[in-house]
Design a protein that fits this description.
heterodimer; A: 314 residues; alpha/beta; globular; B: 265 residues; Rossmann fold; six-stranded mixed sheet; four-stranded antiparallel sheet; 11 helices; 10 strands
């Protein structure tokens, strides 16, 4: 596959091994994919509920996205267009490896364009560009249980979910306000799904929490090590927990993106030298590149960080 | 005397009938029956292994009895069999109307959360969502149990044993329960700390008009706290009566032994 970015090459590849392609397509065997699809359907039927599933060994270690990869493998088809991001960026090692993996085992076209993708697998971010109906966002989740930090017993947390006993989650918010004078937790910020199930939104920054609410896309969450799948179907209410006198708020920055000047995106701080010089850039690399292509200019436009690295041929 | 008369007239808050618990072949407790009225403090005394804690766990909905009934005057359903309630209803009742003070504060506190958060948690469980109000209630309760309010955000392990026990007491009283279970609340404490905690408990119980069931092997605790006593031996209740009556004029040989074995200094 000389150019994994082109749909044409995927079509060629599918022609070359067409007879075998549909058996054990996309790495997992048919029975496993069936099992995962059933878990996904159950998860979609009960928004926010953690469905146990028989997580398989994957060719990457736990913590590298085994849950997300299994979800993707179960729903992907040859006509899909696949995008994979890690911390918002398309060009990080983990994202590149997983993208190549699916280009190889599922013969799908891959892209960096959020609008063009039908399946987006992500770790730690939701793309800045609003998702559309028909898209699926697959999250890689390390710890699906939002109550785990305060209640170590699985039997007890299951009972708490079953009986909607969520007072305990507020203890963590209380501690945060008591210590820092505000709700200081910034990632994995607990959410209430459809006013019924408490859900950890995976380690996305709380900046992205409002994007979960009433989203048009299907949001699937997979935790490979913890063997849980959960989901937020399109147009479901997602409320971030807070106190009446300490309402939920997202992170803000005084700076704009140094490369594209965006005021509304999630920014990463990049340290430039030992003298403490730094810059803030969009964490969503495709969003930033698209804005620059459209002529937006930030204060440090043209910096070497903006030069895209060429992906070596697989 | 007036208060006592009122107590007797009131409908029972808790009614236990023929409660029996077998652990396989081993007897936990057998045929225990009693009634508890609002504002009444019942002491359960007896030696180790006499079934005190088994009885307390059965009554407090934490351990299903082999036979017999435990009825509580719930605010939502009236007088109801505790084990006849569905699990969510029972858990809700335990949360809203009961408190449970463990012998070891580590069993009753969340050691990972701060003292203040431990005290405020019952309020959050009951739907409290206003930080400022809960914070103030926590501070008020820390003062009531005579703790330094500046240490509100310390973790429980940074407090001494007696202080941890006070945090546990505050945590179990802050939501205004009607019935509090105490399993040897002064068990692991030294004598002077014990005396201060007992004093405090007695005051709080009287002020709040709480009904309390307190399990202890310490006759002094029983004398100070309880209106009424049940003496247990080998899983059975051998004598019941008013505290002073049982302690000053014990009838059953075992009660006599128990009372006479208190060391005199």
């Amino acid at each position: 596959m000389s150019s994994p970015q082109s749909k044409a090459s995927a079509a060629n590849a599918s022609g070359s091994n067409a007879p075998e392609r549909y058996y054990n397509y996309a790495y997992l065997d048919e029975q496993t994919k069936r099992m995962i699809r059933r878990a996904i359907l159950k998860a979609l039927a009960i928004p926010g509920y953690q469905v146990p599933f028989g997580s398989r060994e994957m060719p990457v270690p736990y913590g590298w996205g085994t849950g997300g990869i299994q979800l993707t493998a179960a729903i992907i088809g040859p006509d899909d267009v696949y995008k994979c991001i890690d911390q918002g960026a398309d060009d990080t090692t983990n994202a590149v490896s997983i993208r190549r993996f699916f280009a190889k085992v599922a013969d799908v076209a891959v892209t960096e364009d959020t609008a063009e993708a039908t399946i987006i697998q992500t770790r730690h971010r939701i793309p800045e560009k609003p998702l559309k109906e028909g898209q699926v966002l697959v999250f890689q989740v390390p710890q699906p249980e939002p109550l785990r930090g305060l209640e170590p017993r699985e039997t007890e947390t299951r009972a708490m979910h079953a009986y909607e006993e969520y007072g305990l989650q507020y203890v963590s918010l209380y501690e945060s306000v008591a210590t820092y004078g505000r709700i200081a937790s910034t990632v994995g910020y607990p959410t209430m799904i459809d006013e019924r199930y408490l859900m950890s939104p995976s380690p996305i920054p709380k900046f992205d929490n409002p994007k979960l609410d009433d989203n048009e896309a299907i949001l699937l969450f997979g935790a490979g090590r913890e063997k849980r799948i959960y989901a937020v179907p399109p147009h479901t209410s997602v409320r971030s927990l807070d106190f009446e006198d300490y309402p939920f708020e997202t992170q803000t920055w005084e700076e704009n993106c140094a490369l594209c000047g965006a005021e509304d995106s999630y920014l990463d701080e990049v340290v430039l030298d030992d003298a403490g010089e730094r810059m803030f850039v969009c964490s969503d690399s495709h969003y930033c590149a698209e804005r620059r292509a459209a002529g937006h200019v930030g204060p440090m436009a043209g910096h070497q960080l903006a030069v895209p690295e060429k992906e070596p041929a697989a | 005397m007036n208060a006592m008369a009122k107590t007797i007239q009131a409908a029972p808050l808790l009614s236990v009938r023929d409660l029996t618990k077998w652990y396989g072949q081993i007897l936990g407790c057998r045929d225990v029956s009693f009634e508890l009225r609002p504002g009444e403090v019942l002491g359960i005394v007896g030696e180790s292994g006499s079934g005190k804690t088994t009885l307390l766990n059965c009554i407090s909905g934490r351990l299903a009895p082999t036979s017999g009934a435990v009825e509580f005057d719930t605010s939502r359903f009236g007088l109801t069999d505790v084990y006849g309630l569905s699990e969510p209803d029972r858990r809700r009742m335990q949360r809203e109307e009961w408190g449970f003070v463990h012998q070891n504060p580590r069993d009753g506190l969340r050691m990972r959360a701060s003292g203040g958060a431990n005290v405020a948690e019952p309020l959050m469980n009951l739907g409290g969502r206003h930080y400022g109000k809960m914070r103030q209630a926590t501070i008020d309760w820390l003062q009531r149990v005579e703790l330094d309010t500046r240490r509100i955000d310390d973790k429980p392990r940074r407090f001494s044993g007696g202080m941890q026990q006070r945090i546990q007491v505050a945590r179990n009283l802050i939501h205004g329960p009607r019935l509090v279970f105490m399993d040897e609340p002064t068990g692991g404490l030294d004598v002077s700390v014990q005396a201060r905690l007992l004093d405090l408990l007695r005051e709080l119980v009287r002020d709040l008009g709480l009904a309390v069931i307190i399990v202890t092997h310490d006759m002094a605790v029983a004398r100070l706290m309880a209106d009424r006593l049940m003496v247990m031996k080998g899983g059975e209740v051998v004598e019941t009566g008013l505290t002073d009556q049982v302690l000053d004029d014990p009838q059953h040989p075992y009660s006599q032994l128990l009372v006479s074995s208190v060391l005199q200094i």
